[in-house]
Specification:
Low-confidence stretches: 1-12
Structural class: alpha/beta
CATH superfamily of the largest domain: Translation initiation factor 3 (IF-3), N-terminal domain
Strand order of the largest sheet: 2-1-4-3
Number of strands: 8
Order of helices and strands: HEEHEEHEHEHEE
Radius of gyration: 29 Å
CATH architecture of the largest domain: Roll
Distance between the termini: 27 Å
Number of domains: 2
Largest sheet: 4 strands, mixed
CATH class of the largest domain: Alpha Beta
CATH topology of the largest domain: Ubiquitin-like (UB roll)
């Protein structure tokens, strides 16, 4: 789920926040502007208190019995919820695993090109999955593939300190490993 779809689902939640005459409970637990708990009141009395202050009665949660409501400005309340949602989305950056593909017959120049692109990804905090596909007779010569991957790792180690998350592993279609920046 990407950030835009998360924001869309949180906006749907914000639109479902009940206020004033939308609240259907007969009694509510009321909290005033200062965050002080007033107590359990009939809905009509709570609405009356909110109108006296020129504010809205906002249902904070319906999971309790009676539901918890707060006196406040509905627009400000929605803004605070959106702000909190954006803050949690910004803090939850997920590191991506990018794949760098090497081949059995890769040249030294191509290895350097892949090292440069890997360096950019690692500096951004991402992870790299190094893949080397082996076909046909190359499967019997997997030691050469291991040498190619080691050459690639040595070139990266010259520029960055790396940490191996998943060791080099022989898979049915070739070799793979995952690295990240220390």
């Amino acid at each position: 789920m990407d950030a835009s779809s998360l924001l869309a689902t949180s906006t749907n939640k914000l639109n479902k926040t009940l206020y004033n005459n939308q609240i259907k409970a007969e009694e509510v637990r009321l909290i005033d502007l200062d965050g002080q708990q007033i107590g359990v009141l009939p809905l009509e009395k709570a609405l009356e208190l909110a109108k006296e202050k020129g504010l809205d009665l906002i249902q904070v949660t319906e999971k309790t019995s009676p539901p918890i409501c707060r006196i406040g400005d509905y627009g400000k309340y929605l803004y605070q919820l959106q702000k909190k949602e954006r803050k949690t989305l910004a803090g939850s950056k997920k590191s991506e695993v990018k794949t760098i593909k090497l081949s059995f017959n890769i040249s030294d120049n191509d290895i350097l090109t892949r090292v440069l692109s890997s360096e950019k990804i690692l500096n951004k905090g991402g992870k790299i999955r190094i893949e080397l596909k082996l076909k046909g007779r190359e499967k019997q010569l997997s030691e050469i593939g291991v040498e190619k991957i080691n050459k690639f790792l040595d070139k990266i180690k010259e520029k960055l300190e790396i940490k191996i998350e998943k060791e080099l592993k022989k898979e049915p279609k070739g070799l793979s490993m995952i690295i990240l920046k220390k």
